[in-house]
Amino acid sequence: MQSSSSKPILSFWQLWNMSLGFLGIQFGFALQNANVSRIFSTLGANPDDLPLFWLAPPVTGLLVQPIIGYLSDNTWHPTWGRRRPFFFVGALLASIALFLMPNSSALWMAAIVLWLLDGAINVSMEPFRAFVGDKLGPSQQTAGFAMQTFFIGWGAVIASLLPTIFTHLGVSNVPVGGAIPDTVRYSFYSGGAIYFLAVLWTVLTAKETPPDDMAAFRAEQRRTKGLGHALREILGGFGRMPKTMVQLAAVQFFTWIALFSMWIYTTNAIGENVFGTTDAQSAAFQSAGNHVGVMFAVYSGVSALAAFILPVLARMTSRKFVHMSCLTIGGISLFSIYAIHDLNMLFVPMVGVGVAWASILTMPYAILAGALPAKRMGYYMGVFNFFIVIPQIVSGLLLGYVTKYWFVGHPIKTLMLGGVCMVMAGVLTLAVRDNADPVAR
């Protein structure tokens, strides 16, 4: 792997090609985020149990990402490179899972497929984060993550709108006999195809540079071969985390509790607070699900546009200040949803959430990349995912109880709690050390 100082400056289109795969990956995540609670509710899930079903994504991330990061750090193939084998395999499996999900006829089937889907997404996604650290020097890393955020945003916009688009095309949006509506099924089929093709584009067009000293790399591969050594390396790395990574962990904890509360409860909250229904079999509830998809498309679209503005603001101020400001805006916006009962006005807070989402997908990774050893980039990016999935697991275990007993079954209040958590994350950003900040040197 090349040192940071010797990495060439890549053109706009090279950045484009190496990031396009994230368009497909986000189709998987966006379809999941906007529709999984709807699918589970349609199949008869109790609203109080929804957080438990949502444990699948964080638990698979907890198990898969550090392992995939470690394996990709220690992989080299003369044709496939280091990260691209994982891009391809993960994309193939995720596409299959996207075709299976809307054909679930029972809760247990949907739960199993969700585990498969999220595990496969993690296999292809984690190496993409390390890919930026591999190929780009410090001067381009923020731009590289911003390009990923651009594709994440637009992938989420299109994927979130798919059920509404199919509804306007005359496809049935009504569950018949308790089955998943056709609009959702066709959306997942489309997402599966786009996921695979977008990742394949990056696999075929983005090349990887071999390690500077191939003999030393092969010797290291032989030395680290074996499950026992891999587990010792993976677990031992926690005690050697850079200080910046530890500080970002606290920021991530409150950030992802906020996001998880939004993804789990927005459909139910809008169904009750705006459409006046909690009946998942009703046409009104399914209309609420479509509207939430449009709301999520708005915040994703804003994030795609903001992705190229945030690096400019970061150069003018600092990455810490930008991230703190964006999280605060997003938290206040999420909190404000409780007071809005007009369908069109619901798009306004999504603008603020979109600004926060753009920063969440860019700034922590840009700050972290500058604090990590190059040869362990994939591993530490995988470990960093722990600080995303642990708060999601906490949310999955506790939000159902909090919603039922603290908030008397009103999910809109859970969204308000998420807003408070996001503002807290913004405040904690001020304690993070960024090696690129002149003040930190």
How would you describe this protein?
With 441 residues, this protein is mainly alpha-helical. The chain has a single domain, classed as Growth Hormone, Chain: A (Up-down Bundle), CATH 1.20.1250. Helix content is 73%, strand content 0%. The chain is built from 19 helices and no strands. α2 packs parallel to α5 and α5 runs antiparallel to α6. The longest helix is centred in the middle third of the chain and has 31 residues. It is globular and about 65 Å long. The mean pLDDT is 85.
What is the rounded distance between the termini?
26 Å
Shape: globular
The share of residues in helices is: over 70%
The sequence of SSEs as H and E is HHHHHHHHHHHHHHHHHHH
CATH class, named Mainly Alpha
Count of discrete structural domains: 1
CATH superfamily: MFS general substrate transporter like domains
Biggest pleated sheet: none
Give the number of DSSP strands.
0
DSSP helix count?
A: 19
Shape-level CATH architecture? Up-down Bundle
CATH domain topology:
Growth Hormone, Chain: A
Estimate the mean pLDDT confidence.
85
Q: Kindly provide the radius of gyration, computed on alpha-carbon positions and rounded to a whole number of angstroms.
A: 21 Å
Question: Strand content of the residues, in percent?
Answer: under 5%
Based on secondary structure, the structural category is mainly alpha
Q: Ranges with pLDDT <50 over ≥5 residues?
A: none
Topology:
Blueprint: H1 12-19, H2 21-42, H3 50-53, H4 56-73, H5 84-100, H6 107-135, H7 138-168, H8 182-205, H9 214-223, H10 227-236, H11 243-273, H12 283-306, H13 310-316, H14 319-336, H15 347-360, H16 363-369, H17 377-384, H18 386-406, H19 411-429
